[in-house]
Amino acid sequence: MPVITNIQDLKRSYRRHTPKMFYDYVESGSWTEQTFHENSSDYADLRLRQRVAVDMTGRSTASEMIGQPVAMPVALAPVGLTGMQRADGEIKAARAAEKFGVPFTLSTMSICSIEDVAQHTTKPFWFQLYTMKDDDYVSRLVERARAAKCSALVITLDLQILGQRHKDLKNGLSTPPKPTPRTLMNLATKWGWGREMLGTKRRQFGNIVGHVKGVSDMSNLGAWTAEQFDPSLDWDKIAKLKEQWGGKVILKGILDVEDARMAAKVGADAIIVSNHGGRQLDGALSSIRSLDPILQAVGDQVEVHIDGGIRSGQDVLKAIAMGAKGTYIGRAFIYGLGAMGEQGVTRALEIIHRELDTTMALCGERDVNKLGRHNLLIPEDFSGRWQA
What we know:
Blueprint: H1 7-17, H2 20-26, H3 34-41, E1 47-48, E2 63-65, E3 68-70, E4 74-76, H4 82-85, H5 89-100, E5 105-106, H6 114-119, E6 126-129, H7 135-147, E7 152-156, H8 166-171, H9 181-187, H10 191-198, H11 221-228, H12 235-245, E8 249-254, H13 257-265, E9 270-273, H14 287-298, E10 303-307, H15 313-322, E11 326-329, H16 331-340, H17 342-362, E12 376-377
Parallel strand pairs: 4-11, 5-6, 6-7, 7-8, 8-9, 9-10, 10-11
Antiparallel strand pairs: 1-12, 2-3
Helix pairs in contact: 1-16, 5-17, 13-14, 15-17, 16-17
């Protein structure tokens, strides 16, 4: 086993252990993948201010997200098909997050069901909701999340229509994988993955199969999502979902100032500045470049979080210093999960925490809650200068 010192080390191991179609599902974006790549690369344009001769003892990364204490301002983002990256993946990731003291967000498109994850954890997790045309199913899904004592509902707004991801189409993405010659040849090289999958009963979409009328098989993900995701979702429907839930609501997929204002108007507890990891509207601004205008518009009305492109503790620090109250990692924890299971998710969190803590100290700060723009060197046109 090679020495693991950063998230890229986990990514290399993840690629060796995971079937190609599921690796490509995570490690890709829509169309040209411009936004997918810039989500990460744009963080490099923010520089850190080194400070010296400052007392660096007694540091703390502890914070809060929507009033919930967290060991660091990082949550595990909702990732579909997590249970195909590693057998029982959602359960393993949720356990690692719970032990570390950060939130775990379960995707509607998970392999392990809400009930599965609740049964194998001891603390409330967050549930991410995709709105579907089937109102009855959505209502029952919300009630199932409530029954499982989920402590927040994360409503995704930017997947009313599925963006085209070339790799998924070319790989024939399905769960479980269809036994084509090409797929079987690849699976033959991933015997560890296959052995674990044979040992679990969880190989379908646990929140969907058996819960949607007439759906007993979900092998064709693309066809089902194209048919069921709700293109008519609007702010009135979001307000009704918030009312039905009655608890903490986080709105995910905000990239525009006007949408941020609408999210604040409907009473969201938090918003996530996000472009779906570059998997929807290719050519959109990266999340980190979109953050500041949104903070300027609504930062005193609603808690602002961010996801997309975070691969290190330094990225976390930069986002928090810019003004975000919380960050989310998706691919970073999936790399760990695919490489080493639950232990790998823990390793990813440890790496990010260590990088955050060390960088915070070298910037002359002892409390993550005291980070601010004074810790950064920000290009004057970082958020872009665009014609009205």
